[in-house]
Amino acid sequence: MTVFGIVGWKNSGKTGLMERLVTEITARGLSVSTVKHAHHSFDVDQPGKDSHRHRVAGAQEVLLASANRWALMHELREVGEPSLQDLLDRLAPVDLVLVEGYKRDAHPKIEAHRAETGQPLIARDDPTIRALASDEPLSGMNIPVFDLDDTEAIADFILNEIGR
Fold this sequence. Notes:
Elements: E1 3-7, H1 14-27, E2 32-36, H2 50-57, E3 61-65, E4 70-74, H3 84-88, E5 96-100, E6 109-113, E7 129-134, E8 145-147, H4 151-161
Parallel strand pairs: 1-5, 1-6, 2-5, 6-7, 7-8
Antiparallel strand pairs: 3-4
């Protein structure tokens, strides 16, 4: 599967860019899946619901299914966090997997940057970052710099990078 990432510091615009890219790229007829890395504990289940009760009771995996979607929840239970590759191996084949986060992994990436965060550019020290998407002009960069809101140009860049 072809993977391309969106990285950046907190509040840099990663999620909004991901959302716009999924809309833009799927509108062009390609299938897209996403992987989002969370640095904190999260729960997609709700206390009191049957699936939550199964999980709390000790089930390793709980698969919840309906006529509209299915979701598989897998409890790590003392096992370390899976690698990005382990997670990608679980996905059904698509034309492109967009990954939000996993900035230390080796796949190609675009860095989302907002001046208001006050954070340094990750791209200065990371050769896997192929372009920047920023809300401010950035000079002296050896990689392309796009306006953070220019979704069409960013999608064009990604699709060109992956040979589509």
